[in-house]
Amino acid sequence: MTKNPDLRTNAALSLDAYWMPFTANRQFKQAPRMLARAEGMHYWTPEGRKILDGIAGLWCVNAGHARPRIVQAIQQQAAEMDFAPPFNMGHPKAFELARRLIEIAPAGMSKVFYTNSGSESVETALKMAIAYHRARGDGSRTRLIGRERGYHGVNFGGISVGGIVANRKMFGTLLAGVDHIRHTHDLARNAFSRGVPEYGAELADDLERLVALHDASTIAAVIVEPVAGSTGVLLPPKGYLQRLRDICDRHGILLIFDEVITGFGRLGSPFAGQHFGVTPDLMVVAKGLTNGSVPMGAVFANQHIHDAFMSGPEHLIEFFHGYTYSAHPLACAAALGTLDTYAEEGLLTRGATMAPYFEDALHSLKGAPNVIDVRNIGLVGGIELDPIPGQPGKRAFDAFLHCWERGALIRTTGDTIALSPPLIIEKEHIDELVGIVAGALKATP
Ligand SMILES: Cc1ncc(COP(=O)(O)O)c(C=O)c1O
User: Fold this and answer.
1) 151 ligand 1 Cβ < 6 A
2) Which atom of ligand 1 lies at the shortest distance from residue 229's CA?
3) How crowded is residue 107: how many other Cβ atoms within 10 Å of its Cβ?
4) Shortest-distance atom of ligand 1 to CA 117
């Protein structure tokens, strides 16, 4: 038997044991990028190097890091009650949080179901949609429609309705009965648009094509991200989401908005539904719900969805679904502290105030080496680069490494650089962030 190695002194081995998610493990372990502390707009490395956070952790730390109300709420809750079973039992903060959430949600979204992540929220919403139709006696509506290039987390339902090839191709045949409408990315017509692009509302009509193919009576729901983030910041063309809503209504199909990234102020409104004036039937959130501090997700349901389940004997469970950690007390406390922070600092609408400055800064990158598009909305930016022939993703990844060395954390997906800073960002941070990105584009031709 080998002797247990001392992990405190054997740094190489201690890196070895952790199989990292969505990471080039071998590359990382040759030159690890470690974070040790965070506050406000910044991270610090273990050596004390200060890093400007250009992506709110991972699109989630909307109020910035280590905010006192959130820290205190978690600390107090951990001491008061660590866990409470969520099945057939409750605790006050779970109810208080749901009440607070529906106050800021789009009109009509009046019920909240808790999960622990965006992926779980997606699965929950898909199951809710299918079960809803069955509960009202329309059990043939089982088909789920996603969109090419969509990202809906990594569980089987989410990757089935998702449309990112790398996330799907290794995992077999996925869920049956899923189809996809076309994505809306159109560089030829829309490159360098400021805000939502002009062209492409008609792409929503692709749903009519699938209705013609499958018949509406077999379709339960359509799920889209109002603004697709992880696939490279793809914005909905003007009028597109309303058109999708109208087609869903015409055919009795539920519309699910995956607001895991757009929720909690990212676009300058509490949710994208309000920003675009389009209300879904189900809304999926996570990330900014607790400011990234404790894992938590949720599904918001329209009243009529919920009510369809409320039949049968009252002592019986209406929806056979839930997680051990649904409504976890620490997560609920963190979310309440987060909502307080958002409200006190006006963060759910601050993105709208900062958006014009952010937009100008991003679009100053037009003309920088290899930039083929710049996209922006609220405090989200996408800078698409021309791929190096035969090495997709490499150019953007090199820019990411360069930014890290120069003190900024950015994110790349394919050859698109995505920026989504904390909503507390100031103009000088925007200048610094975009300046570092500009430097990286010059340095990594
Ligand atoms: C739109 C969208 N849906 C779902 C998810 C999955 O969330 P999680 O990683 O918390 O499971 C993400 C994560 O980035 C997302 O962007």
Assistant:
1) yes
2) 16
3) 10
4) 10
Q: Are residues 251 and 177 in the same domain?
A: yes
CB 284 within 8 A of CB 116: no
Distance (Å) from CA 94 to ligand 1 centroid: 22
Beta bridge partners of 409: 53
Half-sphere exposure of 79 (CA within 13 A, CB side): 5
Whether residue 119 has its Cβ less than 6 Å from ligand 1: yes
From the CA of 323, how far away is ligand 1's center (Å)? 17
Cα→Cα distances 2→10, 129, 312, 436, Å: 15, 52, 60, 47
Please indicate whether residue 286, judged by its CB atom, sits closer than 6 Å to ligand 1.
yes
Radius of gyration (Cα) for the chain, nearest Å? 22
Residues 15, 23: contact at Cβ < 8 Å? no
Q: Could you tell me how many residues make up the chain?
A: 445
Listed in sequence order, the residues at least 6 apart from 328 whose beta carbon sits closer than 8 Å to its beta carbon are 83, 86, 114, 116, 294, 296
Region of 393 on the Ramachandran plot (φ > 0 left; ψ -120 to 50 alpha; else beta)? left
pTM score, whole prediction: 0.96
- One-letter amino acid identity for 192? F
Tell me: the pLDDT tens digits for 249-299?
Answer: 999 999 999 999 999 999 999 999 999 999 999 999 999 999 999 999 999
Residue 271 CB coordination number (10 Å): 26
Q: Which numbered atom of ligand 1 lies nearest the CA of 284?
A: 3
pLDDT tens by residue, 79-138? 999 999 999 999 999 999 999 999 999 999 999 999 999 999 999 999 999 999 999 999
Total of domains in the chain: 2
Given 318, 345, 372, the domain boundary residue is 345
Interacting residues of 326 by C-beta distance below 8 A, sequence separation 6+ = 86, 113, 114, 115, 116
Question: What's the CATH number where 183 sits?
Answer: 3.40.640.10
Q: Is the CB of 261 under 6 A from ligand 1?
A: yes
Residue 270 near ligand 1, beta carbon < 6 Å? no
Q: Identify which of 115, 120, 260, 284 to mutate to test ligand 1's pocket (most ligand atoms within 8 A of the CB).
A: 260
Both 217 and 332 in one domain: the answer is yes
Residue 250 has a CB neighbour count (10 Å cut-off) of: 12
- State whether the beta carbon of 118 lies less than 6 angstroms from ligand 1: yes
262 in contact with ligand 1, CB cutoff 6 A: no
Output phi, psi for 392, to 5 deg.
-60, 140
Contact 352, 359 (CB under 8 A): no
**Could you give the angle at which helices 347-363 and 427-443 cross, rounded to 10 degrees?**
40
User: Distance between CA 230 and CA 287 in Å, rounded?
Assistant: 13
- Interval between CA 441 and ligand 1 midpoint (Å): 28
Boundaries of domain holding 329: 69-345
